[in-house]
Design a protein that fits this description.
This protein is α+β, with helices and mostly antiparallel strands. The protein has helices at 2-16, 118-131, 263-270, 275-291, 310-320, 361-371, 377-394, and strands at residues 19-22, 27-29, 43-44, 54-60, 65-70, 73-78, 86-89, 94-95, 98-102, 106-112, 140-156, 172-188, 203-209, 215-222, 227-233, 236-239, 243-248, 255-261, 297-298, 302-306, 329-331, 339-343, 349-354, 403-408. It contains seven helices and 24 strands. The chain is elongated.
Length: 436
């Protein structure tokens, strides 16, 4: 029985750490159901930090047309005059709601026709995705290429008289074509109705002609029983952030209160998600696996030294249970590491470092300006986006490749009392918003 309990415990531990496979994340800005009559703009495409391999769609400006980004190329189309449309390329455009995903690699599947309704596209994409092991409860991008017998697509037109291209009582213009060769670009989601899909649909689809002379929102389609190519995002690594910990069961209790903690719990403790918090959590996860290789992390048996970063110190005390007043935690910037963590019963200790060159230099450059309170409000937004992008990298790559964990022989515990470190994450709390 004891062997069975140990096996189950170890299995749970392994299930909560390591990596898993998932599709590239889908992001949204704004929503269909929150647009009011002014169509307030929620994103300027030029502010997207990572435009490589970007696939995206949304209305152009204040309903002046359609936007489709295909593999990092931003197309926008307008139809201000009856029977005519203009398609252009630029990042200097805006949108009231937008859905996007960076997909570097695709997996090709055969999709059998006919495709005669948008609903049929939805059903066949979902069926193939699910049969190939995709989690269709999570949103994903997709593409369909081939020759389509007939398609009808619309381009929205302005609804307000003060917007360029406005025509009374015209909200969109339809365009129909036969024998079209091109790409259907779409996003599938069962939980974004009213956000970027209609209230009765799980997909939002645009059509882009192969020669790039037409693009619009796909409404109708007719095809024969022919074969098409469906492209689904190649699954990528996602990091499991859970850790199993052991604590006492009440204020004067016994050891044995085993529970799971993960990054979401740490975020609530710290106050926000940021790259430093993820660095701290994943780095500690690697070191604690070394200290407790065959079981659960004993937070009554662990002490830690942390770099002074607010993110790292919060990760240290939350994850290990270390506290200064109990001589199980202190802060030092004298070590060339993020942390030094020690298991008390074995005296084993490890340092944790992030590999050099992993973190973009611009984050530290802008971060230094933010600490000195010299960063412009709009640059503060850019810094946040850069940190968010780095966070995404950390959470989609194997932590073993990002951190160096080194054992220290004869580690000396030398607690230092110092309370004048700068809490850098609150210095700009009263900074005005970016108005550009």
């Amino acid at each position: 029985m004891k062997k069975l309990i140990l096996l189950v415990t170890f299995t749970l531990l392994l299930a909560s750490i390591g990596t898993a496979q998932s599709t590239p994340k889908v992001f949204t800005k704004g929503a269909m159901n929150t647009m009011d009559s002014t169509y307030d703009l929620k994103i300027w495409l030029d502010t997207l930090p990572d435009k490589s391999n970007l696939f995206a769609m949304g209305p152009y400006d204040k309903m002046k047309g359609e936007i489709t980004v295909f593999d990092g190329k931003p197309f926008f189309a307008s139809a201000f005059k009856e029977g005519k449309m203009v398609i252009s390329q630029s990042w200097d455009i805006r949108s009231p709601f937008f859905v996007y995903s960076n997909v570097k690699h695709w997996v090709e599947y055969n999709l059998e026709g006919p495709l005669n309704t948008i609903e049929e596209i939805q059903e066949k994409v979902a069926k193939i995705a699910e049969s190939e092991g995709y989690d269709i409860k999570e949103p994903f991008a997709f593409r369909i290429s081939g020759e389509f017998d007939q398609i009808t697509a619309h381009i929205v037109t302005p609804r307000n008289a003060d917007v360029e291209g406005y025509r009374p009582d015209v909200k969109s213009q339809d365009f129909s074509f036969k024998n079209e060769i091109g790409q259907i670009i779409g996003f599938y989601s069962e939980k974004h109705q009213g956000i970027f899909t209609g209230s009765k649909s799980f997909i939002h689809v645009h059509y882009l002609r192969d020669d790039q002379t037409f693009m619009g929102h796909l409404d109708k389609i007719t095809t024969a029983n022919k074969l098409f190519k469906l492209y689904l995002p190649k699954k990528q690594t996602s990091v499991k952030t859970g850790m199993r910990v052991n604590d006492t069961d009440f204020s004067k209790g016994r050891l044995g209160n085993i529970q799971n903690i993960d990054l979401d719990d740490l975020v609530k403790f710290h106050g926000h998600l940021c790259d430093g918090l993820v660095v701290g959590h994943l780095g500690l996860q690697q070191a604690l696996q070394k200290l407790y290789p065959n079981g659960i992390i004993d937070r009554t048996n662990t002490r830690i030294v942390s770099n002074s970063s607010p993110c790292l110190t919060d990760a240290a005390i939350f994850t290990t249970g270390g506290r200064y007043q109990f001589n199980s935690f202190y802060v030092s910037n004298d070590m060339d590491a993020l942390f030094t963590v020690q298991r008390l019963d074995t005296k084993k200790a490890y340092t944790v470092k992030m590999k050099k060159g992993l973190k973009p230099k611009e984050i530290d450059k802008l971060g230094a300006l933010a600490v000195s309170e010299e960063l412009h409000a709009c640059d503060l937004n850019r810094l946040k986006q850069l940190e968010d992008d780095f966070t995404e990298i950390l959470l989609t790559t194997d932590p073993k490749d990002n951190f160096i964990v080194t054992e220290i022989v004869d580690f000396k515990w030398n607690p230092v009392l110092k309370n004048d470190y700068i809490k850098t994450d609150i210095l700009n709390k009263n900074k005005s918003n970016c108005t550009q």
